[in-house]
Write a structure and sequence with these properties.
By secondary structure, the protein is of the alpha/beta class. It is 32% helix and 20% strand. The longest helix is centred in the middle third of the chain and has 15 residues, at 150-164. It binds NADPH dihydro-nicotinamide-adenine-dinucleotide phosphate and N-acetyl-L-glutamyl 5-phosphate.
């Protein structure tokens, strides 16, 4: 497969390059940057030395890139991918697009425009939401995939069995999630300075984070009715990883065994979902550098709540890894191809 990456100088672009370096069917054709075209990628990312001998192109070459590629990954800030997707599809109607940002995640464009504050300029795109374990059959046929957000991947995977099996009160869902700093991308901002982040933990965007409507839309579709959740993200002082702790009230009479069955039946045969079972304690360290999502759940008999916990690497299952998992599905390849590495531990 001839693969191009638009926005290759960002963290998700670098992670795509890292994983694709050992993907047996991948040939990376073009990589782009608007700030550093003409620069050797090994100067931008020395950790990729020996794996690539490539200079950065720019979006000025998009038509050529689209015509020569089988698939384009887009790792741009939201609002920029739609134009790339529209132009690339016009240049090559057979191109496959996998966007790592939010532009193609929402079926309801009004929700996108309301939360992201930019007009949607590619509404005619028949995009598919790329949470592979939930949408595999649609991803297989998709021309454009909107890859999920990192918090949303962890939170939806933790809650989906409870929602699909109708085990919880849909008005009671609370998600408390923590992310490493790479989730904010590579560009400079005050909030991600070492001195701001190190030895500190902080909530942010309380009752207003953009992953809230994404989680609500997907869980609402599974439930067959609209729902709202409380979602609170936190920034923690580590480079990678997300831990999402999700709370919900169990419906009257739901036994712990019913909860176990829901997880087993939904994920029992999913390779990238490692069920730690009832009483399990997922940890970001166990998923670092991998496409795994580790899941554990607990029943609090005193409060009648179920507490489901998911750990992922935000840059892998939360971004580049899931994007490559989707590519493997779209090109009818074994889903684990290029993704079957053990975690880096400790
Ligand atoms: N980081 C994460 O954990 C996750 C990120 N995502 C999403 O993936 C996308 C990329 O994220 P990430 O890699 O972290 O971001 P970074 O900030 O690290 O990188 C952004 C990339 O976009 C390019 N870029 C920035 N501004 C523009 C612009 N105006 N026009 C064209 N290119 C531009 C930059 O290239 P250059 O400046 O060289 O042109 C760079 O390659 C975002 O939409 C993000 O929300 C999704 C899941 C997880
Ligand atoms: C730690 C941190 O800042 N994380 C980012 C989430 C990154 C992401 O997945 O955002 P998209 O939905 O735009 O792709 C944030 O909270 O905005």
């Amino acid at each position: 497969m001839k693969i191009s990456i638009v926005g290759a100088t960002g963290y998700t672009g670098a992670e795509l390059l890292r994983i694709l370096a050992s993907h047996p069917a991948a040939e990376v054709l073009y990589i782009t940057s608007e700030s550093q075209p003409g620069t050797d990628i090994n100067e931008v990312y020395p950790h990729l030395t020996r794996f690539y001998n490539k200079t950065l192109a720019s979006l000025a070459d998009l038509d050529k890139i689209a015509i020569e590629s089988d698939v384009i990954f887009i790792g741009l800030p939201h609002g920029h991918a739609m134009e790339v997707g529209r132009k690339a599809t016009a240049a090559n109607p057979n191109i496959r697009i996998i966007d790592l940002g939010a532009d193609y995640r929402f079926k309801n464009h009004d929700v996108y425009e309301q939360w992201y504050k930019v007009p949607h300029t590619h509404k005619e795109a028949q995009a598919v939401y790329g949470l592979t374990e939930l949408n595999r059959s649609q991803v297989r046929e998709a021309a454009i995939v909107g890859n999920p957000g990192c918090y949303t991947t962890a939170s939806i995977l933790a809650l989906a069995p409870l929602v699909q099996h109708k085990l919880i009160d849909l008005t009671s869902i609370i998600v408390d999630a923590k992310s490493g700093v790479s989730g904010a991308g590579r560009s400079l901002s005050l909030g991600s300075h070492f001195t701001e982040v190190f030895e500190s933990v902080k909530a942010y965007n309380v009752a207003g984070h953009r992953h809230t409507p994404e989680i609500e839309a997907v869980l609402g579709e599974l439930a067959g009715e609209e729902l709202v959740i409380s979602f609170t993200p936190h920034l923690i002082p580590m480079p990678r990883g997300i831990l999402s702790t999700c709370y919900a009230r169990l419906k009257e009479g739901v036994s712990p065994e019913k909860v176990d069955e829901a997880y087993d039946s939904m994920y029992g045969s999913e390779y990238f979902i490692r069920l730690l079972g009832r009483g399990g304690y997922p940890a970001t360290k166990n998923t670092r550098g991998t496409n795994f999502c580790d899941l554990g759940w607990h029943i609090d008999k005193r409060t009648g709540r179920v507490i489901a916990i998911a750990a992922i690497d935000n840059l892998v299952k939360g971004a580049a890894g899931q994007a490559i998992q989707n590519m493997n599905v779209m090109f009818k390849m074994e889903e684990r191809t290029g993704l079957d590495n053990a975690p880096l531990y400790p």
